[in-house]
Amino acid sequence: MATERVHDSLNKKEDGNQFILVLGLTKNARLDLDSEERPLNGISYRFMFENTTGILKILTYGHDVITSNITRQIDLLCVRMGMDPTSEFASGGTTTRLLCAKTKGKQPDGCLFPKARIQRDREAWPTLVIEAGVAASLPRLREEARWWLRNSQGEVRIVLVLGIHRQRRTLIMEKWGQQDRTPINQRQLPPQAEAPLQAYAAQTIEISSESISGAPLVLPFEELLERPRQGKETDIVLAEEQLRACMSWVWQWMG
Questions:
Q1: What are the counts of helices (DSSP H) followed by strands (DSSP E) for the chain?
Q2: Highest taxon of the source (predicted)?
């Protein structure tokens, strides 16, 4: 089975292709792949589709761990500021199905929904999305970042792209966002139709077992939680200490 071959190769070498193209996707097959049962014999994957074409991204233990660890660090930093993460936001992953006009959709590796959005709309977009893969998949992962930012029309504020290089024992982390709109009082007259916002990598961090460059990772409070900060609340900042903690189990898994 193709998924098992790709999964075995990734766990042995942690490189190579991790994407499987599915053509002629039926509605029933799409519903199966997008279900909580995860039908591929326990193999961890993420699913995206457009019309009758689907793409499976096969994951490894390392990818799941780093994604989970980042969301846990966000939780811990919120607790230190006196916040209760469970009342402020919800995390999602394989069970999150975000559809655009019911013709295309995508599962993130991880994501965060602020409370205000969930209360307003159960099908709302997250503010933060995480997409993880092997370092060789970085070009494709960047396209996935653009997918979230473009299709959400700016509702997704930040996408973290994570590329793990097992041989080098290195993680490449990119923070993606969209360029700010020109303030109304600075626009040229006569008014013109606004061009689509451009997605770009605002920050790159490289983490190895010996060093870190490009830190800290700063997640703006208002963009993440969609409310003004209060009291001692600040931006969510993952410094070198938190970034090392995110990777500690991954290094052990790499051996």
A1: 8, 14
A2: Eukaryota
DSSP structural state of residue 10: H
- Give the CA dihedral 242, 247, 248, 252, nearest 10 degrees: 180
On whether the CB atoms of residues 109 and 67 are closer than 8 A, the answer is yes
Cα–Cα dist 179/149, whole Å: 11
Q: What is the pLDDT of residues 197-251, one digit of tens each?
A: 789 999 999 999 889 999 999 999 999 999 999 999 999 999 999 999 888 877 7
The residues, any chain, with a CB within 8 Å of residue 28's CB and separated by 6 or more, are: none
Give the least confident one: 33-42, 71-80, 137-146. Answer: 33-42
DSSP 191: -
Q: What is the helix (H) or strand (E) element at residue 114, kind and residue range?
A: strand 110-114
Contact 129, 154 (CB under 8 A): no
Alpha helices in the chain (DSSP H): 2-13, 27-33, 61-80, 85-88, 115-120, 138-151, 221-225, 240-254
Six-digit token string for 41: 């014999």
- Residue 93, amino acid: G
- Cis peptide bond prior to 190, omega within 30° of 0: yes
Packed helices 240-254 and 61-80: angle between N→C axes, nearest 10 degrees: 160
Query: What are the φ and ψ backbone dihedral angles of 241, each rounded to 5 degrees?
Result: -60, -50
- Rg of the chain, C-alpha, whole Å: 19
Q: Write out the two tokens for 118.
A: 């969930």
CATH code of the region 61-179+199-254: 3.90.1570
Which tokens go with 18? 């991790």
